[in-house]
Amino acid sequence: MCETCTAAPAGASVPVVIVGAGPVGVTAALLLARRGVRSIVLERHRDVYPLPRALVVDDEVRRILQAAGVGEAFAAMARTGNGLRLLDARHRVMAEFRRSKQGPHGYPQTSMFEQPALERLLRDSLARYPECELRSGAEVTGIGPDTGGPVCVTYRDDDGEHQLWAEAVLGCDGANSLTRQAIGAAWEDLRFEERWTVIDVRTTADVRCWEGVDQVCDPDRPATFMRVGEDRYRWEFRLRDGQQPVRELVAPWLPPSYDGDFEVVREREYTFRARTADRWRSGRVFLLGDAAHLMPPFIGQGLCSGLRDAYNLAWKLARVLRQGGDERLLDTYESERKPHARHVIRLAVLMGWAMTGGQDGAAALRRRLLAVACRIPGLTEAAGRDLSPALTAGPLVGRHTRRGSRLVGTHCPQPWVDADGRRARLDEVLGDSFAVLTAADPSPSLNALVQGLGVRAVPVAALNDDGTLAAWLRRGRADAVLVRPDRVVMDVVPAGGRGFSGAAAWAPVLCTARGPVEETASAPLSGSAAR
């Protein structure tokens, strides 16, 4: 709690304060800025952490980076990965989970990168938005005690103590989150904790790899291996007594008796845990990323989950702050994201179990059963399809019992389309707001609803894509879909139907009290004026 905050706002006011300038915090700031919401990002470190950490994102997250305005720049630094393989103790392939080079979101389903490069890219982009300000060397010391808004944030820098008053605070401050403590949230332990060593290496050796991720399912020495860059590789090994030297650990991947260049960029021990916060929000204070959930890295979804948090929350918060949207919009952040985070954590724990088979007397039997299961036709393909299951019914996800329900809560695909005589990705055409995609001419009632929401109705035939959207609507037995700003299908018009059957539930939540708010000059973002 912040004991130094005054009873009434005495410092500068800003719509949003973001605690932490990692990839999640800066992406949240970019997504808000593109919707006209100003923010100040407070980061206690002076610069980007220089060593690699997160390495993998999926095609859904590539789409989020596109929405944040850095999609093309990220493409220039990313490498396409083949997916995931399970190897036995002798490095024989047990199963392959192939990932497509063109996923439904319009990008490779696995992309490899180095986190410091991504963070610099995000910060460079942030500097181009006048709506954002990054304050480095600013350590947050208190939040609250009132979290209902405006929320007092106290921080310390070289010039002393300062206060900011924010309409919302986003806690993107990692596993040891001060924000989580401030709202009184506690960890829920999902029962996985192991100590591993992570080794990043630079070498020009002919390292044996398949341009994807290898998981070695060896109870004595489980390991993860992947190529990151042209000459960069990562190995992860579970720790045990009598740890071997690095060269001995990685020898199975190197040419025999290799004695050439081999630079250990980083060797560090980590404790991999599976946890989620019991609450992700208190009033106008929210938890995102590692502040809200921790997961083992075995399926590469730690950073991905944090960026999904930012995408889910940003458009809702912008609608509330800029247009007087219903506060119930903000309630849907935790109710939509927490179940998905728990789902992904369970998958990561399951993969950890697959790598070892457990440590009890039945472990050997379970490993044999796993090897048999991996040979079942279609099983590995089904297991590797999509890490984002459909959202369950809620205020922003229609509830259906009739035809067309299979699309509700899923993501709209993103093909290339025609836009003003040029080829563009679908989201570039739809913009940052809601959209209605139609397979047929909209009915008068649908036109009225579209006008009432202030959204665009786009006939898919006019987009001149490769047929992806029309086929998607046919499979879903839908004449039209209402797509949210985060590209989740909120409701459908079933084939032959007249309108969105779930509108009575979601329309009141989307109602806004005013049009876009013009920012005043009373809350400047310049460093000196805002202190």
Automatic annotation (TrEMBL):
Keywords: Oxidoreductase. Residues 14-346 form the FAD-binding domain. The keyword Chloroplast does not apply. InterPro entries: FAD-bd, FAD/NAD-bd_sf, PheA/TfdB_FAD_monoxygenase. PANTHER family: 3-(3-HYDROXY-PHENYL)PROPIONATE/3-HYDROXYCINNAMIC ACID HYDROXYLASE, FAD-BINDING MONOOXYGENASE. This is Bifunctional 3-(3-hydroxy-phenyl)propionate/3-hydroxycinnamic acid hydroxylase. It comes from Streptacidiphilus cavernicola.
